[in-house]
Amino acid sequence: MSHQRTVYLIDDDPGDRHTLAFQLGNFGIEAWPFAGGGEFLASLLHLRPECIILSMEVPQQSGLQLMAELVRRGVDWPVIAVSKAPELRTVIEAMKLGAIEFLEKPVDIEALLSALGEAALALENTVLASEKRRSAEERVACLTPRERDISLSLVRGQANKMTAHQLGISVRTVEAHRANIMMKLGVRSLAELVLLITEARLSYGSHVPRPPHAFPRRQHPGGTVAPFPTAPRSNRRPSSRAAV
């Protein structure tokens, strides 16, 4: 049974959306269409992590502005930027904001499938990192505020005596907290503790947030995230990457 992948297609031109969605459908890829960045952002909390195909000419909120907003929100899903008349400045800014590829319209399907393959690998890494972070956050959440403070002092390599002085407690109390922290978190060494705290992104004065877009990854028979198909070799044409 074939597995259908999904991409989010953000383009204000209905003709371009229909054409590209039809072409992708021929390769078993379902394109979810959005007429603009505002419509996409309004649906963001209800969407699973997937690759994004983004037109730079969307109205009201430009493609670059939408990419910047996604960065601000911590949404690091891979983006493939497309444009009818790409300018060097736009291409550079899109790449700085994390675009996987920048293609010129009309988009060559082979070039797009190649970019989607790269994007799928990036998405796989992003989802795995998000799940590892979420698991670490859930384990660290069991610590009391005092234990969190002591955990951070251990990560910084502070001696128990210095930690005790800073927190206004005895060295013996610090040692007792340290033993309790190791037991709660299920770690056997300071190195394991440092790794766990780093993955959880624990910091002073902040609760560890869970990204609103961190959904369970989609499974498929061959691995974690289903790969995108490639165009038949006999039909391949020169790439239509944006020439600037």
Task: Jot down its keywords.
alpha/beta; 11% strand; single chain; 244 residues; 47% helix; 5-stranded parallel β-sheet
Strand order of the largest sheet: 2-1-3-4-5
Shape from CA axes? elongated
Number of strands: 5
The rounded Rg comes to: 23 Å
Element-level helix/strand string? EHEHEHEHEHHHHH
Q: Report on the biggest sheet.
A: 5 strands, parallel
| Content-based structural category | alpha/beta
User: How many helices in DSSP terms?
Assistant: 9
In what range is the share of β-strand residues? 5-15%
- Which ranges are low-confidence, i.e. pLDDT below 50, for 5 or more consecutive residues? 204-224, 234-240
Q: Give the helix level as a range of percent.
A: 40-55%
Would you summarize the structure shown here?
By secondary structure, the protein is α/β, with parallel strands linked by helices.
Would you give an account of this structure?
With 244 residues, the chain is of the alpha/beta class. Helix content is 47%, strand content 11%. It is built from nine helices and five strands; from the N terminus they run βαβαβαβαβααααα. The protein has helices at 14-25, 37-43, 63-72, 88-96, 109-140, 145-155, 160-167, 171-185, 190-200, and strands at residues 5-10, 29-34, 51-55, 79-83, 99-104. A five-stranded parallel beta sheet has the order 2-1-3-4-5, with helices on both faces. Helix 1 (14-25) links the parallel strand 1 (5-10) and strand 2 (29-34). The protein starts with a strand and ends in a 44-residue tail after the last helix. Mean pLDDT is 83; it is low at 204-224 and 234-240.
